[in-house]
Design a protein that fits this description.
alpha+beta, two-stranded antiparallel ribbon
Length: 369
């Protein structure tokens, strides 16, 4: 049965053998389902009358064991995660329930009912944070070490590599002070089960138990506001501040009624939300730039603008971040458009050259045939 990728893909050959020979499934064909910002790939498995998903996580680059463990923890909270049908952790293969092909982002961009979709997503998150409190104790802490490591991605990959900024000593000092403030604030929040990427690309529209939740293997025990930021200040789609604050108020009321620590006031909860949002979005600026410069994935460069806008908006609201806000406006914002245009043009040239090489190889093969 011909795959939808070249037969020279050794991992794909392994997957076919695992499915057809070892698991003895009546495999009709495989097709790419999706890829993400890691080395993982996903293939849709077509069987008579149904489909499944294979996660391909090459050992040495990815480890499926955290995924298996966190999947079980989320299931205890009633979250709709893909059921694991088969697992070969040593070879980095999982056979999963197929949650369909409609992420929240696609439905929302096509005018889907945002109120209903977000109501479902927030209800699921409330279950994660309330029912998952015991499970959260089994996760590693989202403490100073990972927070600082993530924040340092921004000056290295976004400021230096993408914008070409040479930071003066006083600017480096400003970043150090700002990062220290953000880490202190993050660790002062109530600590809950944190998915860490709870956003519109990782939530699937499902007919039952909506949403299906993906990409949770990096979960930690961390700030209560973090996953709310991932969802409501999504790096791929934006909502008016008034709507976000309404969703946030409603969420706080829900989880407080269920016994979760949610701040002494709406104002404190909003502060937690905004400040952990600065930490997350600074991290994401670095990650999106690194995905291009290190991993050759330019698809996230257009999302840098919205991500930076979230940082600018939050910093303008809190006096503790006034100096950092000025740094952003004076040194960071002016160079972003030109840097994006430069790198997107370079990515287009690289893609065109790759297509040309592929066309020439196809032509040579056809002539030999």
């Amino acid at each position: 049965m011909p795959p939808d990728r070249p037969i020279t893909d050794v991992r794909l050959t392994l997957i076919e053998h695992w499915l057809a020979r070892e698991l003895r499934l009546p495999l009709r064909r495989l097709a790419p389902a999706s890829a993400d910002a890691s080395f993982r790939r996903y293939f849709r498995v077509f069987l008579p009358g149904r489909t499944l998903i294979v996660m391909d996580a090459p050992p040495g680059q990815e480890d499926v064991r955290p995924y298996i463990r966190v999947s079980g923890l989320l299931e205890t909270a009633g979250v709709h995660v893909p059921r694991i049908h088969e697992a070969d952790a040593d070879r980095g293969l999982l056979l999963l329930e197929d949650l369909g092909s409609t992420p929240y982002l696609h439905r929302l961009r096509r005018g889907g009912d945002a109120e209903r979709l977000y109501a479902d997503a927030l209800a699921t998150l409330a279950d994660v944070q309330v029912l998952g409190l015991e499970a959260a104790r089994q996760l590693g802490p989202y403490d100073r070490a990972p927070l600082e490591r993530e924040l340092r991605l921004m000056p290295e990959w976004f400021c230096d590599r993408h914008l070409g900024l040479e930071l003066a000593a006083e600017e480096q000092g400003l970043l150090t002070v700002t990062f220290e403030f953000l880490m202190t604030e993050a660790q002062a929040q109530p600590q809950v089960f944190v998915h860490r990427d709870y956003h519109s690309r990782n939530l699937m529209v499902t007919a039952e138990r909506n949403p299906g939740v993906l990409d949770f293997q990096d979960a930690l025990r961390g700030p209560v506001g973090y996953d709310l930021v991932s969802l409501l200040k999504d790096c791929y789609i934006a909502w008016p501040r008034e709507r976000v604050e309404r969703w946030l108020r409603e969420y706080r009321s829900t989880v407080r009624a269920r016994g979760l620590a949610a701040g002494s006031s709406e104002r404190e909860f909003l502060r937690w939300f905004d400040l952990i949002g600065v930490q997350r979005h600074l991290k994401v600026l670095g990650i999106f730039a690194r995905l291009w410069y290190r991993d050759g994935k330019p698809g996230y460069l257009p999302d840098l603008g919205l991500t930076l806008d979230y940082v600018r908006d939050a910093c303008a609201r809190y006096t503790e971040l006034n100096h950092f806000a000025r740094f952003l406006e004076d040194r960071v914002v002016p160079g972003l458009a030109a840097a994006n245009a430069r790198e997107m043009a370079r990515a287009s040239r690289i893609a065109a050259a790759s297509r040309g090489r592929k066309a020439r190889r196809t032509h040579r093969r056809s002539r030999r045939a």
